[in-house]
Amino acid sequence: MKKIMITLMLLFVSTQMVAAEVQTPEQEQRAQKIVYDFLFNDPNSPRIGAKNPKLTLVVFTDYNCPYCKKFDPYLERIVEKYPDVAVVFKFLPYRSESSVTSARDALTVWRSHPEQFMKFNDILMAKKGYHDDASIQEAKKRAGVSVTTPDAESLMTIKRSLLIAEKLGIQGTPATLIGEGLLPGWVPFEQFDEMVSDALKKS
Which of 45, 103, 145, 160 has the greatest count of CB atoms below 10 A from its CB? Predict the structure, then answer.
């Protein structure tokens, strides 16, 4: 797992996201808080697990990514095994237009009917190969999703995720923030489980 220092990472990202003029310590602190809150506390980003977690994992994912499809089932298993862990979903629609469409639909479902999100997410992730409009509509039907048009906030959330991922040096999915480390790509569940357990002990 790639080791990163969260505080230094937040400082780097936040200073890159604001204007080039010299910042006061208060401005830097405020910028860091904006980045931190988006990563870990954004109400527009889907989340599962503990309400008041000791450890929050942030997973960057894509509904057309074959490794994300293998990794995604781990997330529910992890929050079931560790009651003090939460998982936040961030979408990086790198692969095709349907990556954007499915991500926007999922974010809109989360905002309007959060109880429908995981079923919709699981159906989208279960499809082999890339999505198209027909498969996304079929996923909505199977999940009982009532959302028809993605909202504007879904696009803004994706843009913020893409910007922060770029600053973190994330170039593919899945990518997962685990405590002080960044796990790029897929690993077997046992390895992921060990990483989460170790990070939880340090939190």
Answer: 103
Work out whether strand 181-184 and strand 85-91 pair parallel, antiparallel, or are unpaired: unpaired
Rounded to two decimals, the pTM is 0.89
Tell me the average pLDDT across 157-175. Answer: 92
For the chain, the three-class secondary structure string (H helix, E strand, C coil) is CEECCHHHHHHHHHHHHCCCCCCCHHHHHHHHHHHHHHHHHCCCCCEEECCCCCEEEEEEECCCCHHHHHHHHHHHHHHHHCCCEEEEEEECCCCCHHHHHHHHHHHHHHHHCHHHHHHHHHHHHHCCCCCCHHHHHHHHHHHCCCCCCCCHHHHHHHHHHHHHHHHHCCCCCCEEEECCEEEECCCCHHHHHHHHHHHHHHC
Average of per-residue pLDDT values in the chain: 89
CB 61 within 8 A of CB 89: yes
Sheet of 175-178: strand order equals 2-3, 181-184, 175-178, 55-61, 85-91, 47-49
The stretch 55-68 carries a mean pLDDT of 98
Distances (CA, A) of 112 to 49, 86, 146, 149, 166: 19, 20, 9, 11, 28
